[in-house]
Amino acid sequence: MDSTIAADFVATEATATVFTKPCILYFFIVGTLLGGFLIIIGLLGNFISLTILSKERKKSSTIQALCLLAVADTGLLLSYFPFPMMEATWARKTYLVGMIAGVYTFEAARFCNQVSAFLTMILTWQRYVAVCLPHKAKQLCTVRIVNRIAACSSVAAFVFYLPNFFLYSIKTNDDGGYYPVSHPLVKNAYFQLIYSVILTYLVSYIIPVVSLLYMSVAILRSFKSHSNTITSSASSQHARKDLTKSSIAIVVIYITCQSFQPIRRILMWVYDPYMVSIDCGGELFHFSYIPHLALMFNSSANFGIYILFARGFRRKLITCLTRRTAVGPTDADDSNTMTSTNNPSAIVPTGMSSKRANTVALADDPQKMKSLDNMAPHGTDTGGTNTIAPRVTSTKRASDARHIVTSISN
């Protein structure tokens, strides 16, 4: 998020531009209606996502990353709460709403947006390790590691953006109106070049986008390769596909929405003075709201992504809305879509046949061995001679199966 966004709104409010009817209508439709809709839908969607996913967050590092991402997105949407009412007639009488938004709340939105960027990187990294480095998933894909990285990232983002909260202050004039007062650093060329441009775009855009693109491409390649070589059940294949589609969709939307900030910076160099261009009647007046709407859309879109690509999430959502317990032979399989996220590729390791995979599953579940034992006949036909084989207990079979698995792994 650009470090001069707050300055734009503060400067625009300070000029006390008279809005024409087309400008007022545009802001009412785009700013109030569309912006307010994105905020309300986003808050509702993130709340439902947290309600559903939080039940499994302690079991999966990916689910934990998704829950933390929903919290960061909620913080950004709450920070943008003054946006739909900033240009209302009553708000422009004193400009207090616009002043507070430009000086404080939009800076809080920048912080939340940076945390969201770091969490998106953590989420994609978890999928990258699970799909591309399954042998390291047990060590790296843990809830504890995700929590620690998320905490360190949040602290780093707060420290990095802390100076921006002190660049402007709000003063009151004799008429009871409000106006901004800028810190001398705002006019410092070195500060603007090094901090506001180079470091800000490096941290908020270049590093996240490059890393996300690299991991996403690697995930797609590895997933395509595994789908051609691994023999697994249809349910596990669906779970892997759903998880990959969800993570890739989150990355695509993130990169698209964040790209409006560099575009805006380029336009600032082309259209000089930029403050006049974004004012009512200016060439960039209609564009000036798009970067903000893009960030709000980015923080509101994950709920729709889960509905479109995660079958298990859809099933749990329907169950939650209808308040009934979903039953059926595929319930357990569909739940893997949003719960078994640590290492889906480990369902059937590479090179392991379906029969050997079934042996592994039976070894880990003595109850299945017991049920199979009860269904198995006691007599065995060997070479046309009827012989009665002694019945082996389920505990013995489970022990033998574990011995087979140990031999295979060795």
From TrEMBL:
Protein name from the UniProt record: G-protein coupled receptors family 1 profile domain-containing protein
Region (Disordered): 330-350, 375-410
Species for this entry: Capitella teleta
Listed transmembrane segments: 24-53, 65-83, 145-170, 190-215, 248-267, 287-309
Keyword annotations: Membrane, Transmembrane, Transmembrane helix
GO molecular function: G protein-coupled receptor activity
GO CC list: membrane
Alphabetical list of SUPFAM superfamilies matching this protein: Family A G protein-coupled receptor-like
Main localization of the protein described in the UniProt heading: membrane
Ranges annotated as biased composition (Polar residues): 335-350, 383-396
InterPro entries: GPCR-Ligand_Int, GPCR_Rhodpsn, GPCR_Rhodpsn_7TM
Domain G-protein coupled receptors family 1 profile: 45-306
Compartments, as annotated in UniProt: Membrane
